[in-house]
Design goal:
Elements lengths: L15 H9 L5 H5 L5 E4 L14 E15 L4 E9 L2 E8 L13 E10 L5 E4 L2 E4 L11 H9 L5 E4 L10 H13 L11 H7 L4 H9 L7 H5 L4 H27 L9 H9 L7 H15 L5 E6 L5 H14 L3 E6 L2 H15 L6 E4 L5 H13 L4 E5 H5 L7 E6 L7 H14 L6 E6 L5 H7 L4 E5 L10 E6 L3 H13 L3 E5 L14 H12 L5 E4 L5 H12 L5 E4 L12 E6 L7 H8 L10 E6 L5 H12 L3 H17 L2 H4 L13 H15 L8 H19 L6
Parallel strand pairs: 4-6, 9-14, 9-15, 10-12, 10-13, 11-12, 13-14, 16-21, 17-19, 17-20, 18-19, 20-21
Antiparallel strand pairs: 1-8, 2-3, 2-5, 3-4, 5-6, 5-7
Helix pairs in contact: 6-8, 8-24, 8-25, 9-11, 10-11, 12-19, 21-22
The structure holds adenosine-5'-diphosphate (ADP) and magnesium ion.
The site of magnesium ion has 4 residues, from α11.
Length: 718
Amino acid sequence: MLEPSTPVQFVKGIGPRLAEVLAAKGIATVDDLLHYLPFRYEDRLNPRSVAELRAGEMATVIAEVRNSGLFRTRRMPIFQLTVGQGPTKLKCLWFNAPYLQDRFQPGQMLALYGKVEEDRDGNLQIIQPQFEVLGDINEEGGADEAEKKAAASLEIGRIVPIYESTGQGKLTPRWFRRTIRFALENLSPDLPDPIPAAVRAHLSLVSPREALFQVHWPDAGESFTDLQSSRTPAHIRLIFDELFFIELGLELKRREQKAQTGISFQLTPGVREAIKKILPFHPTAAQKRVLKEIATDMQMSCPMRRLLQGDVGSGKTIVAFQAAIIAIENGYQVALMAPTEILAQQHYFSARQILERAGYRIVLLTGSLEQDRKRDIRRHIAEGNAQLIIGTHALIQDRVEFKNLGLVVVDEQHRFGVMQRLKLMKKTDDDAKTAEPDVLVMTATPIPRTLALTLYGDLDLSVLDELPPGRTPVVTRCVQDERAPEVWDFVGKQIAAGHQAYVVYPVIEEDEENELKAARQMHRELREKIFPSLHVGLLHGRLDAEEKEHVMREFQRGKIEILVATTVIEVGVDVPNATVMVIEHADRFGLAQLHQLRGRIGRGAAKSYCVLMRGSKVSEEGERRLDAMVRSNDGFQIAELDLELRGPGEFFGTKQAGIPSFRVANIIRDRQLLEAAKREAAFVISGPNAEVSKDEIDRALREMRSRWALSYGLVEVG
Ligand code: ADP
Ligand code: MG
């Protein structure tokens, strides 16, 4: 008998070497293997007859090999295969595939899957279909007749699961089919269901065992459409299951945070006055509303855990400064953490402009400071002299002793995922010896609200959904490289009118391989040849911090008119006088990145222009990104498209950011199940009650903890 936790090695046909290959794909246990779902299904119960195929459709065809041959054209060898059903025939072609020559023998039965097309003479054909030689068990060798028959019965006359093969020779769809089948047949008969009965009833969930069987080997009556769109009861059970235990963890975390003792900041008339005094402009209605939400949290005795979401340029910084004043006026220290040193420096400049006038003591803690200086600053912080401490995440997390930290602001959170954030907060938790500091995280990633609520389920959400007044939308144009002289001409005119410009490149240094124009070389060219009478600065990640600071300051002061840069300026940089953003090789950048870059302009009253330069060869996806940028200024729209183009894993930066990587769920496709999971998780945690027993809750929590520990390495949750 196989238990879900049994290592895959003990499944028939998996030796230590294959086990290693599978482990690299995240398949370590029987449970992992059973959650390796088919990515599509073939209807081999009612396969299409060749006579009824129509051009343009995707179809599964079962037919017999008639003849095949390789012929050479001037450009490449083409392998042609003719299959038939009775008198009707169908042609299949593969390009550059001479290795198929010895693959087929007349009389073999094939299952073929691909897009049906018409050739020049109006005959139907399928180009490069996926195929399987049916009953071809000898491939794996050593099978007897009975096994052959049993194997064949898995492949015809039913709905057949198709698994993604892994590129490793042996791990074909057929291999997965047999191995998973074996694992299912030997699966321990009593799989406990860790989801409370009431929740199962709310969603009419089938049992885990039934779900696993049906998702791999659906009954003949199952809706084919539901199968292909992952909407069968079996799929829903498995997807909900995965999301439910993630949401349960987040929900529990949220409850625990609420139960901790934080600081009740006082909002006296004096504090209100101090907050108002610093404002260099009238706040927008959205800024007022959000500040109120934050202030309300800060007054409560449980610690604030709030996410502030606002598109680039919506004015998050000033709101953070206002929150900082509440804490400082109450006698506490504030830490403001930025993801990059440039951004930390910039916050430091604006903090000094806005807050130092009011007499607050501000320090900047950067990695490039000399040891002595760092030690000094650390002492200031420990003794409580420094009231606002600005630095990068790494620095502030790294053994800084605060005298009495009251508020932590984490800027541009979009570089961090849920899991990292949990760790980050954990860290601050440890530091506080008495009360928990409040935490405000700020992000410019316009995640759709429902997703934000569920993915950041442990945080409360505030949204700045209004731009400061007087902004005219940035005009965005896409321009071919040949027209660069016109673009430089335009940049020159904007500068003559008193404005400034950014010119962004995808790389710092030229490189023979990729032939991309690079920041360093173009900086020279722009400075010496194109704008010899102007000040052209250069900013990139390889400069040391002092140089970066110098360049940024010169640009901020208007001493530098044109700033040549890499994406180091992507996040947060704020120079309202800059009205032009030229991005070379724009198709090489991600959509979110382009939107962030464009967010650097259009920050003042003057009209701003974003110029996306492109060559003649641009990938299809690149075209779609450029097109989206020209069409829309709306961060939310762009984010939706970005999600679509890149998929959720990439979008949220699963790899660097430690967002849970899902086994079966897809948070875009499964949004509604995600919401249901959040709702049900909250319902379960609020128990026990008439519907959910204490035992059930304990069982669900145990399951949640073991999954979080296994998948995300976070034992401390709960
Ligand atoms: P982000 O939300 O992208 O961090 P910032 O906080 O950098 O945005 O603000 C963008 C720009 O808008 C800054 O120059 C800031 O001074 C200005 N700003 C913010 N709020 C207002 C307001 N209510 N009225 C006018 N300008 C504002
Ligand atoms: Mg910002």
